From TrEMBL:
It holds the Pfam family FAD_binding_2. Keywords: FAD, Flavoprotein, Oxidoreductase. GO terms for molecular function: steroid dehydrogenase activity, acting on the CH-CH group of donors. Residues 7-424 form the FAD-dependent oxidoreductase 2 FAD-binding domain. GO terms for biological process: steroid metabolic process. This is Fumarate reductase flavoprotein subunit.
Length: 458
């Protein structure tokens, strides 16, 4: 680290590690400030399913899949009902293919394109992942590479609590506070706020998204709105503060993620009355508030042996099954007895959904099925969850935080949940990968922009 301080301070060792690695590769000195010493298992990146959309990647080309910025932007527009940030969606789409290839070639991740199932809202297969399909393996690899790089230093545990601007209105320094309240001022020309959103601040959640406020929070306890508070002091614009990723399939018994792959492969969800209540394939995020509004705010995901076996590649699913959360029964009546759900309703729903899956009748909610469910059946009781917020500081296509007049605050960048994302309002605009794409994509863009400016290119 130079005597003048780092070229870039990254606040947050989740998706922020992408910025650290990219900036270091481009010759910058980087300091990563992380609030939790347990970040390898406690941040949202570690809890994710490790899916990153990549538009126009070589894996898509190898599969003969045609994708484009326009197609991705249209998917965002459709899923968000026209409310998503198109400038940001296009910027992220434009860099996403390059980024996932960089993650493979420069960071050493074993990347592949997910083609075994089609996630709701995406017109084509574009979600890339790693073999484990889980964030723990992803964050372990990123942290290991970052710690080994001579240009990257870590300050853990420490919380970035303030950003100082100089007389010209650009970043001059950051203030870092340790767990004992001791503060240190570090001079730097650039800072990336990668501190996630405010899901752990229950008051802010209740204020901006009351429909999910009572649900289980399944995210980092350090996601307390730090970026919002810092940005407000600096005059940053904010947007989409009501946006979030919800989930309708958090296993009640183990607080592990059952996963929406069960649904996409043919599972159905029943509420405590034994009935289906919505189109399950519409998306896992909107099912968070859907389920929260049902009697008892709980339900059961019902699937069969075929679905179980197809979901085995997902670490989250295996952990849920190993926890003993699955209830198995030889037929629908036995499943009703095992779950305590009304027998007639369960029998009727499974018969009707199977007929719809075979094409004998239209599904009353308009969903499509991969295949009908066949006995024996499994069921897992699930509860709604809030995973992370999707609103925050407004950024431009280079991840630069802007003020109310869309003017960049020079040297200040935001990514992931610290930034206003591309999911529009509420929970229903969330596309699979809308968490990691702004987390990784904006971090990548920020590092590239800082390097360009340091080299005199901006």
């Amino acid at each position: 680290m130079s005597e003048e301080g780092p070229d870039l301070v990254v606040a947050g060792a989740g998706g922020g590690l992408i910025a650290a690695l990219r900036a270091a590769q481009l010759g910058l000195d980087v300091l990563v400030v992380e609030a939790s010493e347990h970040f390898l298992r406690g941040n949202n990146t570690s809890m994710c399913t490790a899916m990153v959309p990549g538009v126009g990647s070589r894996w898509q080309r190898e599969q003969g899949i045609e994708d484009s910025v326009d197609l991705f932007a249209a998917d965002v527009d459709r899923k968000t009902k026209g409310t998503g940030d198109q400038r940001l969606a296009r910027a992220l789409a434009a860099v996403s293919g390059e980024m996932v290839e960089w993650m493979a070639d420069e960071v050493g991740l074993e990347i592949s394109l997910m083609t075994d199932m089609h996630y709701p809202g995406h017109s084509v297969d574009r979600c890339h992942t790693i073999p484990e399909r889980h964030g723990t393996a992803l964050i372990d690899h990123l942290a290991r590479r970052a710690r080994a790089h001579p240009n990257i230093d870590f300050l853990v545990p420490a919380r970035l609590t303030d950003v100082e601007l100089d007389a010209d209105g650009r970043v001059a320094a950051v203030v870092v506070t340790d767990p004992h309240g001791e503060q240190e001022r570090i001079e730097t020309p650039a800072v990336l706020l990668a501190t996630n959103g405010y899901g752990a601040d229950r008051e802010l959640v209740a204020e901006h998204m009351p429909e999910i406020a009572a649900a289980t929070y399944h995210g980092s306890e350090t996601s307390r709105g730090d970026a919002l508070r810092i940005g407000a002091r600096l005059g940053a614009a904010t947007a989409y503060l009501d946006a979030y990723q919800g989930h309708g399939a958090l296993a009640a018994k183990a607080a592990t993620l059952l996963g929406w792959a069960t649904i996409m492969h043919g599972a159905v969800m029943l509420d405590t009355t034994g009935h289906r209540f919505a189109k399950e394939t519409s998306g896992y995020s909107e099912f968070g508030p859907f389920l929260a509004a049902r009697p008892g705010a709980t339900g059961w995901v019902v699937y069969d042996r075929r679905v179980h076996d197809l979901c085995e590649p997902f670490t989250d699913f295996r952990q849920t099954a190993e926890s003993g959360a699955e209830v198995w029964a030889d037929d629908a009546r036995g499943l009703a007895a095992a779950t305590g759900l009304p027998e007639e309703a369960v029998v009727a729903e499974l018969e009707e959904s199977a007929r719809a899956a075979r094409g004998e009748i239209p599904d009353r909610f308009g969903r499509d099925y991969e295949a009908p469910l066949e006995p024996p059946y499994a069921a897992v009781r699930v509860v709604p969850a809030l995973f992370h917020t999707q609103g925050g500081l407004v950024v431009d296509g280079s991840a630069r935080v802007v003020d109310a007049d869309d003017r960049p605050i020079r040297g200040l960048y935001a990514s992931g949940g610290a930034a206003a994302g591309i999911s529009g309002h509420g929970a229903s605009g969330y596309l699979a990968g809308n968490g990691l794409l702004p987390a990784f994509g904006l971090a990548y863009l920020a590092a590239t922009a800082v390097a360009s400016e340091r080299a005199g290119g901006a």
